[in-house]
Design goal:
Trna Endonuclease, Chain: A, domain 1; 3-stranded mixed sheet; 46% helix; alpha+beta
Amino acid sequence: MKKKNNSRAVGNAYERQIRLEFIALGWDKCQTSRYASREQDDANVDLCGTVPFNVQIKRWKSAPSYHEILKSMPQDSNYNVIIHKRPNKGEIVAMSKEDFYELVEQLKSNGII
């Protein structure tokens, strides 16, 4: 059981780290859903106050099932994203291709690209 508890602690610490990064990016009301909203936590959203994103955070040695996680997240007007840190492999962000293309179109319409 010690290993499972340690894995949970490592995952929770990673959530708190990402929360601080979101605050630094301008989401000053960002909180972990464990702290702010049981409803959001139950809906597989780890950070609250990050509109227009629903954020799920994973720190696993293996790759999680991104498709299943995205499917389990709220299907609302926010973009569902997964931030995954794999030890010794780095960090990635995963989202649906449809959402990615929508963001690209917004960047194009605002003259950013």
